[in-house]
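input
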Amino acid sequence: MVPLLALAVAGVAGLSLKPPVIDHVQYSHIVQVSAAATQAVKQCRTENVDLRPLVFQTQTLVEYETHLNTNTEPGIAKDLQQLVKQFEHRTTYSVKYCQHKLSEIQAASRTMARAVSGVSKYNFCDSNVEERFYWYQESYALDLISKSEFKELAEDVRHLAGTDRKACSTDQAIKLDQSIQVITDVIGMMEGL
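output
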């Protein structure tokens, strides 16, 4: 009797008891991007990081999403691909840059996976944008990354944080805006150096 009553109350309240529709293929591609980034970050202390699996997985994800006819944010996969391409095109890089860049790709792909799986919407409201930025600042202050590496990482986190805020609460959006402003100010100050 109680389960029937719960169903009736849920129906009256307008709650959907259906699980979210998940595109398992898309989810799998996103997880593969995250896994490839995880494997690549383990190579950061070596001479050459093999980005081929990561390049392939992000290209596969972009191709798949390009041919989807859904309400998915198509730019998010392209943003991931852009992060990978930036890293791929660097002829030299520091160990810390490698770790930061690949962790940014991991974080973005994991956030995207949560969104696609229906666990949460795609947003960086709770992704500690300012904390990630301070890691980059600390690495720069300790001469572990170059000025150009720092600027690129800061731009990455600023861009990803501004990707989608529809799921943010008002407080989260305000905090995110403040974090983005701090990053923008620091990048602006660096332009003058």
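quick obs: Residues 1-17 have pLDDT under 50 and may be disordered.
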